[in-house]
Amino acid sequence: MDIDARLVADRIEEFIRRQMDEMQRDGAVLGMSGGIDCAVVASLLARALGPDRVLALILPERDSSPRSRTDALREIARLGLAHREVDLTPILKPVGVYGALPLGVLGARRIKESAVRWQHRRQTAAIGETPFRQGLLGTRGLGKGKRVVDAGLAYARAKHRARLLVLYYFAELENRLVVGTTNRSEAMTGFVVKWGDNVADIEPILPLYKTQVRRLAAFLDVPEAIIRKAPSPDLLPGIDDEMALGVDYETLDRILEGLDGGGDVAQVASACAAPEAQVRDVQEMVRRSRHLRELPPYPDLGVAASGGGGRGSANR
Question: I want to staple 208 with a disulfide (CB 3.0 to 4.6 A). Which of 6, 212, 287, 299 is the partner?
Answer without folding.
Answer: 212
